[in-house]
Design goal:
With 141 residues, this protein is mainly α. It is built from 3 helices and no strands. The protein has one domain. The termini are far apart.
Length: 141
């Protein structure tokens, strides 16, 4: 049972987030409590080495996750910034569209006034050129 107890103690130490030094010390303490030198070596080899390897892998994964989280946060901030820029651009386009629409309306109104004036002139000249025409009757011979 002492070997299993050592594994259990080391498992708890690992789960509690202890450092590599604490894990090694716990494994040696458990093995030393049995007073068997071969057990100390076996515990160190069979428990501490894999525990340190697992801890190293976990640390690398944590670092990788932290870097990914930082990159994600940076990308999210860039997205927010770009969305704000897009909103400002859209507002500017709407404003330009309104200005363009107003200018187009003014141009069309001016053109309409010009056409009405031309129409009035043409109507006036048409009415003046219309003189009553008297048809002469031909004499019958």
């Amino acid at each position: 049972m002492p070997g299993r107890l050592g594994h259990q103690v080391l498992g708890q130490v690992l789960l509690s987030g202890s450092s590599d030094v604490a894990i090694a010390a716990a494994s040696v303490a458990v093995a030393a409590a049995t007073r068997q030198r071969d057990v100390v070596t076996q515990v160190a080899i069979s428990t501490v080495v894999p525990a340190l390897a697992v801890r190293s892998l976990l640390q690398k994964q944590e670092d990788r996750i932290r870097k990914l989280a930082d990159a994600l946060a940076e990308h999210e901030q860039q997205l927010v910034t770009r969305e704000e820029q897009l909103a400002r651009c859209a507002a500017g386009v709407r404003q330009l569209d309104q200005v363009d629409a107003q200018a187009t309306i003014r141009n069309l109104q001016a053109e309409n006034r010009d056409l009405r004036a031309r129409n009035a002139k043409l109507s006036a000249s048409h009415h003046h050129s219309e003189r009553p025409r008297h048809r002469r009757r031909r004499r019958r011979s």
